[in-house]
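Hi everyone, sorry if this is the wrong subforum. Our group has a chain we'd like a structural model of before ordering constructs, and none of us has done structure prediction before. Sequence below.
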Amino acid sequence: MIGIFGGTFDPVHSGHLRPVWEIKRALNLSEVRLIPCAIPPHRGEPLATGEQRLAMLQAAVKDVPGFIVDKRELQRGGPSYMVDTLQSLRDELGRQPMCLILGQDAFNGIDRWHQWQRLMDLAHIVVMQRPGAVLPSMGPVSDLLAACRTDSVAELSAASAGRVYLQSVTQLEISATQVRRLLQAGGVDAVRFLVPDVVQTYIEQHKLYGKREH
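Answer:
Right subforum, don't worry. Here is the predicted structure as tokens:
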């Protein structure tokens, strides 16, 4: 069973990496594909280029067993719809079990995604659940949970797609927006321990997210 984790990664930070690493261990995933998007459909253009975001992500996970950076969305270009990405992976992997890893907020709004109903035909969904997070009690996402939720990892492994699984993770209150603001306000040392050291070094060397002049 493999995991899929997409994002803008502008820049990649510990709030991305630690929870996904916990998911990999909890579900005994053989690998996790980390997929930087080209053009995010639900937010503004990234500040760093695709090449820069890719380089930071590759550096961050270089020595992490089972973490694989997948460039397909950058190579495809255009809006990075996850349904297209999962379809391309499914075409390559056949019936291998595949889990789309989502944060709680992303899952709660999944009914606003492009062709979101098709996602369940292509992969399982694994939700990284925050302590105290509230799931929708009505509407399409609530209906999806009622129809597809499982508490069994074995059930995920036995099928290629179609189930929703909730996994509690260590929730680090870090966002890329927060990291960029700290960099702009306080320079590169302001994000120490929020991003991997190699990412901090890359940001400094390439003068990304520059400190504002006062």
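For your construct planning: The chain is about 40% helix and 15% strand. The CA atoms of residues 59 and 163 lie 32 Å apart.
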